[in-house]
Design brief:
Elements: E1 11-19, H1 23-34, E2 39-42, E3 54-58, E4 61-64, E5 69-70, H2 75-83, E6 88-90, E7 96-101, E8 104-108, H3 117-134, H4 148-153, H5 156-163, H6 167-181, H7 190-200, H8 203-207, E9 216-218, H9 224-233, E10 237-238, E11 243-248, E12 253-257, E13 260-269, E14 280-282, H10 287-295, E15 302-308, E16 318-324, E17 331-334, E18 343-349, H11 376-391, E19 400-405, H12 423-427, E20 438-440, H13 453-468
Parallel strand pairs: 1-2, 1-13, 2-10, 7-16, 11-14, 13-20
Antiparallel strand pairs: 3-4, 5-9, 6-9, 7-8, 11-12, 12-13, 15-18, 15-19, 16-17, 17-18
């Protein structure tokens, strides 16, 4: 890999330029390189991986500060990992999961949380109806679904308010929305939610920690994958080199950076849709693409890892997986190493509290001070307090704390997509439609497992295939 000075003073001409060195961009470059295409990847940060990032926690052990989990349905990324000899391990899941609801611990087994019978029945009927509706939504073009306009005008929160009848069922759906998208049901389009269900096959597959999308992880950390690809590409990856402008005409695309200009036959922009606002396009992008960029929303996530001398929660018969309707950390999973020599609880925060617009009693607000860049100690205390509520006094004695605040990344606009009402039917096709010689990739652009690492890999492969068909 080259640092940005590798371009200084040079005027290069290549076949394809790729903007973004995350999984999508690297997979696109890999496919093109295998076909003999001259390609260069431009990455603004000083590392590859994008929203995939490891941090060492000791000898031969890492935690995933970004993308972490995969499932048996994620066939493309698993095949890639096998090719590079990257081993997957099951997400630890020994014992019961925990629902922390109304300040009470409710251990449960299976996919159904421990709720009163009438709430369970309400949850089942709502899930059945959503799965049935999703079957009619083509995930590759959801705007063509029957009732697409109606679904896209409606928020998930509004649908739940009309179609669920218990506080318990609504709370579970709020938690599922917050876990998957870091927002409230009122913030996302019903059509967007149905599209994700359609892509996965069912709502349960999206959320199941035993057999679904979070049932496996990479033993050496997810960053091993982009690093292997980048090493294979060698000096065709330029780090610390943000692209400021893309200028195209009928014959070529000029990629302008502070270090110089590269001319390419085609370009693939492999960043999250909101991040394209950092690039000046000449000529300007079509109105639909501009509107998509302006209205696109992504979550700002704080991912935390709390380390203990042992996974003590197993001694309580608990798996380490928590869903909570309160507390600073409302979701946890066990990320302990396979040998269980230490215990690691991974939590996600940055989510709003319960949505009072659905009558669930929450305020729908966050404490913004807890996210201040200078208040790491405050965040740590809040995390430990939440874990103590879930797992008891032993949680008060961590040996290490690791956090990654993705709001601090200057070139990454967010993590999980939060598509608001009206966006898909009005501008959704612009997400993947090429503009002249410029093509698009990124986890959000994949019709299958959008927003996941699997989606990123698939999108890069698809963009490479699209470009290969057009190269002269």
């Amino acid at each position: 890999m080259l640092q940005n000075e590798g371009l200084a003073g040079e005027e290069q001409s290549i076949d394809v330029a790729i903007i973004g060195g995350g999984l999508a961009g690297l997979c696109a470059a890999r496919e093109l390189r295998h076909d003999g295409v001259d390609v260069v990847v431009f990455e603004a940060n000083d590392r590859v991986g994008g929203r995939v990032l490891n941090k060492s926690i000791g000898e031969d052990s890492v935690v995933d500060c970004g993308g972490e989990w995969v499932g048996p349905q994620h066939t493309h990324i698993l095949e890639l990992a096998t090719e590079y000899g990257i081993e997957t391990v099951p997400t630890p899941h020994e014992g019961k999961d925990l629902l922390y609801y109304r300040d009470q611990r409710r251990p449960f087994e299976g996919a159904m949380p421990d709720l009163p019978l009438h709430a369970k029945l309400d949850l089942v009927q709502a899930q059945f109806r959503l799965d049935r509706m999703a079957q009619k939504v083509p995930h590759e073009a959801p705007w063509n679904a029957p009732n697409a306009n109606q679904y896209d005008r409606t928020t998930l929160g509004a649908w739940l308010k009309r179609n669920t009848f218990t506080e318990g069922a609504r709370t579970i759906f709020e938690l599922v929305t917050a876990l998957g998208y870091m927002c409230l049901p009122r913030d996302i389009s019903l059509l967007f939610f149905l599209t994700h269900i359609s892509s996965a096959g069912s709502l349960e597959t999206l959320t199941d920690s035993k057999d679904g999308a979070v049932s496996k992880r990479f033993k050496s950390g997810a960053t091993a994958l982009p690093e292997h690809i980048a090493n294979e590409l060698d000096n065709r990856v330029v780090l610390g080199c943000p692209v400021h402008a893309l200028e195209q005409d009928d014959d070529e695309v000029s990629i302008r950076t502070e270090q110089g200009t590269v001319v390419a036959e085609r370009a693939i922009v492999a960043v999250d849709p909101g991040a394209t606002a950092h690039i000046d396009f000449d000529p300007r992008l079509p109105l639909a693409r501009d509107e998509l960029t302006d209205r696109w929303a992504s979550s700002k996530i704080l991912k935390v890892h709390v380390l203990y001398e042992r996974p003590f929660w197993h001694e309580q018969g608990l798996s380490g997986a928590v869903l909570s309707d309160s507390g600073f950390v409302r979701f946890t999973l066990d990320s302990s190493p396979p040998d269980a020599q230490i215990g690691v609880l991974t939590g996600l925060t940055g989510t709003p509290v319960t949505d009072d617009s659905m009558g669930s009693g929450g305020s729908g607000t966050e404490d913004p001070s807890i996210f201040d860049a200078g208040s790491r100690d405050e965040r740590f205390r809040a995390v430990v307090e939440a874990l103590t509520n879930y797992f008891g006094p032993a949680a008060r004695e961590p040996i290490q704390y690791v956090e990654k605040n993705w709001a601090d990344e200057p070139w990454i606009e967010g993590c999980s997509p939060q598509v608001p009402p009206g966006l898909l039917t009005s501008y959704g096709s612009a997400l993947t439609e090429p503009v002249g010689r410029i093509h698009w990739a990124g986890a959000e652009t994949s019709p299958v497992w959008a927003g996941h690492m699997e989606g990123a890999v698939r999108s890069g492969e698809h963009a490479a295939e699209q470009v290969m068909e057009l190269l002269e």
